[in-house]
Amino acid sequence: MKFSQDFLWGGSIAAHQTEGAFDQDGKGLGIMDLLTSGSYLRPREITKEIESGKRYPSHEGIDFYHRYKEDIRLFADMGFKALRISIDWSRIFPNGDDVQPNQQGIQFYSDLVDELLKYGIEPIVTLYHFEMPMAIVEKYDTWKNRATIDLYLRFCQVMGEALKGRVKYWITFNEMNHIDPKTEVSDIFTYILAGLKNSEIEEPQKTLAVISYNMTLASVKAVKLLHDLDPKNEVGCVFGLTPSYPKTCQPENMLKSFQDTLQEFYQIDAMVGGRFPKYKLFEYQKMGITLDYLDENQPAFAEGKIDFIGLNYYMSAVSTIKERSDQEGAFFGGELNPYLEKSEWGWSIDSVGLRYLLNFVYHKYHLPIMICENGLGAEDIPSKDGTINDDYRIDYLQKHLSELKKAIFEDGVECFGYLMWGPIDLISATTGEMKKRYGFIYVNKHDDGSGDLSRVPKKSYYWYRDMISTQGVNL
Ligand code: BG6
Predict the structure, then answer these.
(1) Would you say the CB of residue 175 lies under 6 angstroms from ligand 1?
(2) Which of 175, 234, 264, 335 is labelled catalytic?
(3) Using CA positions, which residue lies closest to atom 4 of ligand 1?
(4) Among 65, 75, 269, 381, which one is most buried in terms of CB atoms within 10 A?
(5) Alphabetically, which GO biological process terms does the record hold (predicted)?
(6) What domain range includes position 251?
(7) Does residue 43 belong to any structural domain of this protein?
């Protein structure tokens, strides 16, 4: 069995993790420019301003800003049909509310898109992948303020017009689902999504509910805007989802795993169902939270339904009603699964979980799905001859893609693309490391700042190239 000719094989990257050039050509300071490098055990530090002596990985990234032509040629040689990029909002509106957008920023993305199209690579554009201008946090109080929605929509309008006819697939937000008043989130998640440390927020539950609601509203409004701008636009939103399994078949554990899995689905419900879900408002009510302007906003939800669902999948978790457990915790809560191996960064590796999640989401919404991220972060050590034999990554991909194939060909799930994260080594979002490498292409850059940024295809590069050219027949 083969994947269809038009299946979107490719990869996914984000501006703040690759571009660098953080202060060039009129770019303003973005929230990610104030995150230092960290590690698995040492959290990234969030600073109020750039402090000397500290390392801020986004400042140089992998220098994609200057090297994108070389990188895209390597992707093209691999046979990529699609590349997901993000547009850094702070490159277009350096102060968030500038009267005119920064033309140099627009030009960069216009050239980048042209370069992709030159090779027949479909650009898939994310409009918010953690890249909010810092000025919006400072002047407007980030997503707490409804004015931020209008600033975001203006940015979407500018980029929608600039890339009209060249970009068909748009993604309004990446992983806004990690903002949820009921989930205990660490500072890094509220920071990357809204520029705020969870531990410093007053009335955190109410504030997170407002932020999440406003982001959801911004997304549905952006969907309508992009549809109005060009009826050919296909607009989706990307969610990072972690299916959870019951620890035992005890009914209470089953119920818990169902609730844990669905905890971060309410924004998808809003974007597909055309209204902010009543069960979530009920949950807020029980927490003493009321949201304003619900009736006034209702038409926006009805008019801004998404065309497809973007899924980021890295791991599954285990749910149990037992309060205390000896098991090591999973990254997004719950427990680690003793049946599964985990990565060097403690993320469980579960290829079957991908098939499960695809089925779960498809049966719930009946909308086409694009896998927007999936991959293995690992430490790659080049051999003496300079080659990088990342058999573990090939094994990971082989297993995940064969589960994807089953989901499509055995289960009937409509999935039209697989964008591996990140096809070229880039800065890790949660740890700020280079050492946590995902790529098919090795980037000679290290956490101590050394390395000449040269690019070297790894063994997995050739594996993925062959898999694309044979349309996955051997999976
Ligand atoms: C996703 C994000 O949640 O996880 C990416 O959208 C991120 O930006 C990816 O890079 C992997 O996480 P990390 O921390 O390993 O980079």
Answers:
(1) yes
(2) 175
(3) 429
(4) 75
(5) carbohydrate catabolic process
(6) 8-469
(7) yes
Q: Is residue 195 part of a domain?
A: yes
Q: Residue holding tokens 């960064």?
A: 345
Is residue 421 within 6 Å of ligand 1 at its C-beta? yes
- φ, ψ of residue 317 in degrees (nearest 5): -140, 180
474 domain-assigned: no
Q: What tens digit of pLDDT does each residue of 260-299 get? A: 999 999 999 999 999 999 999 999 999 999 999 999 999 9
The two three-digit tokens of residue 159, written as one number: 């980029």
pLDDT value for 185: 78
453 close to 58: Cβ distance less than 8 angstroms: no
pTM above 0.80, yes or no: yes
Dig out the tokens for 406 from the structure: 């089953």
Q: Return the percentage of the chain with pLDDT > 90, whole number.
A: 95
Ligand 1 atom with the smallest distance to the CA of 375 is 11
Classify 155 as helix, strand or coil: helix
Query: What whole-number distance in Å separates Cα of residue 132 and Cα of residue 94?
Result: 9
Task: Name residue 348's beta-bridge partners.
Answer: 342
Q: Which of 19, 373, 403, 433 is labelled catalytic?
A: 373
What value does the mean pLDDT take over residues 9-27? 98
| Contact assessment for residue 89 and residue 155, using Cβ atoms and an 8 Å cutoff | yes
Which CATH number is 214's domain given?
A: 3.20.20.80
CA dihedral 399, 401, 402, 405 (to 10 degrees): 160
Per-residue pLDDT band for 333 (boundaries 50, 70, 90) equals confident
Length of the chain: 475
> Residue 11 in 3-state DSSP?
strand
Is 373 an active-site residue?
Answer: yes
The pLDDT value given to residue 322: 81
Q: pLDDT tens, 424-435?
A: 999 999 999 999
Residue the block writes with tokens 């920071």: 191
> What local confidence, expressed as pLDDT, does residue 81 receive?
98
Q: How many domains does the chain have?
A: 1
Residue 149: inside a domain: yes
Query: What interface predicted TM-score (ipTM) does this complex get?
Result: 0.99
